[in-house]
Amino acid sequence: MYKNFIGKIKLFDGIITLVLLSSVLLTSCYKKEPTTLEVAVQFSNGELVKNAKVKLVVEPTNNSTQLSIINDSTTTNSGGLAFFDMDKYYKSGQVGVAVLKVEAFYFGLSGNQVIQVEEEKRNRVVVMIQ
Known about the structure:
Layout: H1 2-28, E1 36-43, E2 53-58, E3 71-75, E4 81-85, E5 98-106, E6 109-117, E7 122-129
Parallel strand pairs: 1-7
Antiparallel strand pairs: 1-4, 2-3, 2-5, 5-6
């Protein structure tokens, strides 16, 4: 009777160890996808604008958990696109990244668009300047 009890304990310990090891291996395999923002700047006729200045500004919301420190800008490339890496503002496990006002400027013309940036996605927005 004592041998059967010891055998059951060893079997139970083996199962617990296997379950714990499996859960550690599965969670460590999770690869975080990049969080990016792609901004297309275009004139009102649809033509893409190269060398336009694009600026990100945090749009205030009722939920104050988002970072208000986002202050980033760049210029559009020859295809009229600007790219932002949002990973520096997003931490794994955080709900949402930010609600941003994307502002674009080009020789006296300007436009803006509000976007809610979603984590681990390629976020896209089009800003029309007039």
